[in-house]
Amino acid sequence: GAGVSQSPRYKVAKRGQDVALRCDPISGHVSLFWYQQALGQGPEFLTYFQNEAQLDKSGLPSDRFFAERPEGSVSTLKIQRTQQEDSAVYLCASSLKTIVNTGELFFGEGSRLTVL
Amino acid sequence: DAKTTQPNSMESNEEEPVHLPCNHSTISGTDYIHWYRQLPSQGPEYVIHGLTSNVNNRMASLAIAEDRKSSTLILHRATLRDAAVYYCILRSTYNQGGKLIFGQGTELSVKP
Protein backbone atom coordinates (compact mmCIF):
# COMPACT_ATOMS: atom_id res chain seq x y z
CA GLY A 1 0.00 0.00 0.00
CA ALA A 2 1.45 3.27 -1.13
CA GLY A 3 1.67 6.16 1.24
CA VAL A 4 1.94 9.82 0.31
CA SER A 5 4.60 10.20 -2.33
CA GLN A 6 6.52 13.42 -2.95
CA SER A 7 8.94 14.32 -5.71
CA PRO A 8 11.60 15.34 -6.11
CA ARG A 9 13.04 14.37 -2.75
CA TYR A 10 15.83 16.90 -3.18
CA LYS A 11 15.93 20.01 -5.30
CA VAL A 12 18.70 22.57 -5.64
CA ALA A 13 17.72 25.80 -7.34
CA LYS A 14 19.54 28.98 -8.12
CA ARG A 15 18.00 32.12 -6.71
CA GLY A 16 15.40 33.41 -9.12
CA GLN A 17 14.51 30.04 -10.63
CA ASP A 18 11.01 28.59 -10.54
CA VAL A 19 10.45 25.20 -8.92
CA ALA A 20 7.57 22.74 -8.87
CA LEU A 21 7.08 20.16 -6.16
CA ARG A 22 4.69 17.26 -6.64
CA CYS A 23 2.54 15.38 -4.15
CA ASP A 24 0.71 12.10 -4.81
CA PRO A 25 -1.71 11.60 -1.93
CA ILE A 26 -3.09 8.27 -0.79
CA SER A 27 -5.75 7.15 -3.26
CA GLY A 28 -9.21 8.30 -2.26
CA HIS A 29 -8.05 10.87 0.26
CA VAL A 30 -10.20 13.96 0.07
CA SER A 31 -8.08 16.41 2.02
CA LEU A 32 -4.58 17.51 1.08
CA PHE A 33 -2.28 19.83 2.99
CA TRP A 34 1.06 21.49 2.26
CA TYR A 35 3.51 22.46 4.98
CA GLN A 36 6.88 24.20 5.02
CA GLN A 37 9.48 23.13 7.57
CA ALA A 38 12.60 25.22 8.13
CA LEU A 39 15.61 23.60 9.76
CA GLY A 40 15.03 23.00 13.46
CA GLN A 41 11.43 24.24 13.38
CA GLY A 42 8.05 22.57 13.42
CA PRO A 43 6.09 22.33 10.16
CA GLU A 44 4.22 25.51 9.18
CA PHE A 45 0.88 25.24 7.40
CA LEU A 46 0.78 26.60 3.86
CA THR A 47 -2.47 25.57 2.20
CA TYR A 48 -5.35 23.07 2.21
CA PHE A 49 -7.44 21.41 -0.50
CA GLN A 50 -10.69 19.53 -0.25
CA ASN A 51 -10.82 17.59 -3.50
CA GLU A 52 -9.90 20.17 -6.15
CA ALA A 53 -11.03 23.18 -4.16
CA GLN A 54 -8.38 25.20 -2.38
CA LEU A 55 -10.25 26.16 0.77
CA ASP A 56 -7.46 27.69 2.80
CA LYS A 57 -4.33 29.38 1.53
CA SER A 58 -3.75 31.55 4.54
CA GLY A 59 -0.27 30.16 5.16
CA LEU A 60 1.23 30.88 1.76
CA PRO A 61 4.03 33.36 2.55
CA SER A 62 3.83 35.42 -0.63
CA ASP A 63 2.28 35.54 -4.07
CA ARG A 64 5.34 33.68 -5.35
CA PHE A 65 3.82 30.53 -3.86
CA PHE A 66 1.04 28.82 -5.76
CA ALA A 67 -0.60 25.43 -5.28
CA GLU A 68 -3.06 23.51 -7.38
CA ARG A 69 -4.90 20.19 -7.37
CA PRO A 70 -6.85 20.31 -10.63
CA GLU A 71 -8.39 16.83 -10.60
CA GLY A 72 -8.65 16.37 -6.88
CA SER A 73 -5.75 13.95 -6.53
CA VAL A 74 -2.17 14.95 -7.41
CA SER A 75 -1.12 18.38 -6.20
CA THR A 76 1.70 20.68 -7.24
CA LEU A 77 3.29 23.42 -5.17
CA LYS A 78 5.00 25.99 -7.35
CA ILE A 79 7.44 28.59 -6.11
CA GLN A 80 8.33 31.36 -8.52
CA ARG A 81 11.55 33.39 -8.43
CA THR A 82 12.94 31.39 -5.52
CA GLN A 83 14.81 33.17 -2.77
CA GLN A 84 17.22 31.84 -0.17
CA GLU A 85 14.61 32.06 2.58
CA ASP A 86 12.51 29.53 0.63
CA SER A 87 15.07 26.85 1.52
CA ALA A 88 13.15 24.30 3.57
CA VAL A 89 11.53 20.90 3.51
CA TYR A 90 8.09 20.99 1.92
CA LEU A 91 5.75 18.38 3.36
CA CYS A 92 2.53 17.12 1.87
CA ALA A 93 -0.15 15.34 3.89
CA SER A 94 -3.46 13.75 3.00
CA SER A 95 -6.47 12.68 4.98
CA LEU A 96 -9.42 10.47 4.13
CA LYS A 97 -12.06 12.34 6.02
CA THR A 98 -13.31 15.84 6.14
CA ILE A 99 -14.25 15.42 9.78
CA VAL A 100 -11.95 18.04 11.08
CA ASN A 101 -11.25 16.98 14.64
CA THR A 102 -10.17 13.42 14.34
CA GLY A 103 -9.08 12.28 10.89
CA GLU A 104 -5.47 11.20 10.84
CA LEU A 105 -3.11 13.05 8.51
CA PHE A 106 -0.62 10.94 6.57
CA PHE A 107 2.57 12.77 5.66
CA GLY A 108 5.03 12.20 2.87
CA GLU A 109 8.77 12.27 3.44
CA GLY A 110 9.01 15.77 2.05
CA SER A 111 10.88 17.60 -0.68
CA ARG A 112 14.03 19.34 0.50
CA LEU A 113 14.57 22.59 -1.41
CA THR A 114 17.91 24.36 -1.27
CA VAL A 115 18.16 27.76 -2.92
CA LEU A 116 21.68 28.96 -3.66
CA ASP B 1 -6.18 28.03 17.63
CA ALA B 2 -5.37 27.35 21.25
CA LYS B 3 -1.69 27.01 22.02
CA THR B 4 0.28 24.16 23.58
CA THR B 5 3.47 24.32 25.65
CA GLN B 6 6.00 21.50 25.70
CA PRO B 7 9.54 21.14 27.03
CA ASN B 8 12.12 21.61 24.30
CA SER B 9 13.88 18.34 25.01
CA MET B 10 13.82 15.24 27.17
CA GLU B 11 16.07 12.26 27.70
CA SER B 12 15.16 8.69 28.42
CA ASN B 13 16.90 5.37 28.89
CA GLU B 14 16.07 2.49 26.63
CA GLU B 15 13.34 0.14 27.88
CA GLU B 16 12.15 2.64 30.49
CA PRO B 17 8.81 4.48 30.41
CA VAL B 18 8.72 8.05 29.11
CA HIS B 19 6.18 10.69 30.09
CA LEU B 20 6.00 13.62 27.68
CA PRO B 21 4.00 16.54 29.13
CA CYS B 22 1.92 19.12 27.31
CA ASN B 23 0.13 22.16 28.73
CA HIS B 24 -2.89 23.60 26.95
CA SER B 25 -4.57 25.90 29.43
CA THR B 26 -6.70 27.70 26.80
CA ILE B 27 -8.18 24.53 25.33
CA SER B 28 -11.83 24.83 24.31
CA GLY B 29 -14.52 22.25 24.80
CA THR B 30 -14.45 20.98 21.23
CA ASP B 31 -10.66 20.77 20.84
CA TYR B 32 -9.20 17.31 20.41
CA ILE B 33 -5.68 16.67 21.68
CA HIS B 34 -3.47 15.09 19.04
CA TRP B 35 0.08 13.81 19.21
CA TYR B 36 2.32 13.36 16.21
CA ARG B 37 5.99 12.49 16.11
CA GLN B 38 8.67 13.15 13.53
CA LEU B 39 11.60 10.81 13.19
CA PRO B 40 14.79 12.21 11.65
CA SER B 41 14.48 12.92 7.92
CA GLN B 42 10.85 11.79 7.80
CA GLY B 43 7.46 13.43 7.75
CA PRO B 44 5.39 13.54 10.94
CA GLU B 45 3.37 10.47 11.83
CA TYR B 46 0.23 10.14 13.90
CA VAL B 47 0.62 8.73 17.39
CA ILE B 48 -2.65 9.13 19.26
CA HIS B 49 -5.53 11.50 19.98
CA GLY B 50 -8.20 12.02 22.60
CA LEU B 51 -10.90 14.35 23.85
CA THR B 52 -11.57 13.74 27.55
CA SER B 53 -10.87 10.14 28.47
CA ASN B 54 -7.48 8.46 28.58
CA VAL B 55 -6.65 6.56 25.41
CA ASN B 56 -4.43 3.60 24.63
CA ASN B 57 -3.18 2.23 21.34
CA ARG B 58 -0.34 0.04 20.19
CA MET B 59 2.10 2.94 20.10
CA ALA B 60 1.36 4.85 23.29
CA SER B 61 -1.09 5.99 25.94
CA LEU B 62 -2.57 9.44 26.36
CA ALA B 63 -3.46 10.66 29.82
CA ILE B 64 -5.70 13.74 29.88
CA ALA B 65 -6.13 15.83 33.02
CA GLU B 66 -9.65 16.13 34.36
CA ASP B 67 -9.76 19.86 33.57
CA ARG B 68 -8.21 19.13 30.15
CA LYS B 69 -5.62 21.84 30.64
CA SER B 70 -2.77 19.39 30.32
CA SER B 71 -2.04 15.95 28.94
CA THR B 72 0.79 13.43 28.96
CA LEU B 73 1.93 11.09 26.24
CA ILE B 74 3.26 7.88 27.71
CA LEU B 75 5.62 5.55 25.92
CA HIS B 76 5.64 2.43 28.05
CA ARG B 77 9.06 1.11 27.05
CA ALA B 78 11.22 3.49 25.07
CA THR B 79 13.31 2.04 22.27
CA LEU B 80 16.05 3.68 20.25
CA ARG B 81 13.53 3.98 17.40
CA ASP B 82 11.37 6.25 19.56
CA ALA B 83 13.96 9.03 19.35
CA ALA B 84 12.02 11.79 17.58
CA VAL B 85 10.38 15.18 17.97
CA TYR B 86 6.97 14.78 19.59
CA TYR B 87 4.29 17.37 18.85
CA CYS B 88 1.22 18.00 20.98
CA ILE B 89 -1.48 19.70 18.89
CA LEU B 90 -5.00 20.94 19.56
CA ARG B 91 -7.41 20.38 16.72
CA SER B 92 -10.54 22.48 16.60
CA THR B 93 -13.94 21.86 15.08
CA TYR B 94 -13.72 25.34 13.61
CA ASN B 95 -10.31 24.80 12.12
CA GLN B 96 -10.65 24.84 8.35
CA GLY B 97 -10.19 21.34 7.05
CA GLY B 98 -8.69 20.10 10.28
CA LYS B 99 -5.26 21.50 9.59
CA LEU B 100 -2.66 20.77 12.25
CA ILE B 101 -0.86 23.73 13.78
CA PHE B 102 2.54 22.51 14.96
CA GLY B 103 4.58 24.10 17.72
CA GLN B 104 8.23 23.42 18.46
CA GLY B 105 7.61 20.00 20.00
CA THR B 106 9.75 18.01 22.43
CA GLU B 107 12.89 16.38 21.11
CA LEU B 108 13.19 13.00 22.80
CA SER B 109 16.56 11.29 22.91
CA VAL B 110 16.85 7.67 24.04
CA LYS B 111 20.06 6.36 25.52
CA PRO B 112 21.01 2.69 25.21
Characterize the structure shown:
- The complex is a heterodimer of chains A (116) and B (112).
- Chain A has strands at residues 5-7, 10-13, 19-24, 31-37, 44-50, 53-56, 65-68, 75-79, 88-95, 106-107, 111-115.
- By secondary structure, chain A is mostly beta strands.
- Chain A is globular.
- The termini of chain A are far apart.
- With 112 residues, chain B is mainly β.
- Chain B is built from no helices and nine strands.
- Chain B has strands spanning 9-13, 18-23, 32-38, 45-50, 55-56, 61-64, 70-75, 84-91, 106-111.
- Chain B is globular, with a radius of gyration of 13 Å.
- The mean pLDDT of chain B is 92.
- The A-B interface holds A 4, 31, 33, 35, 41-45, 48, 50, 55-56, 91, 93, 95, 98-110 and B 30-32, 36, 41-46, 49, 85, 87, 91-93, 95-105.
List the helices and strands and how they pair.
The complex is a heterodimer of chains A (116) and B (112).
Chain A: E1 5-7, E2 10-13, E3 19-24, E4 31-37, E5 44-50, E6 53-56, E7 65-68, E8 75-79, E9 88-95, E10 106-107, E11 111-115
Parallel strand pairs in A: 2-11
Antiparallel strand pairs in A: 1-3, 3-8, 4-5, 4-9, 5-6, 7-8, 9-10, 9-11
Chain B: E1 9-13, E2 18-23, E3 32-38, E4 45-50, E5 55-56, E6 61-64, E7 70-75, E8 84-91, E9 106-111
Considering the chains and any ligands shown, give keywords for the structure.
heterodimer, A: about 120 residues, mainly beta, 11 strands, B: about 110 residues, five-stranded mixed β-sheet, four-stranded antiparallel β-sheet, 9 strands, globular
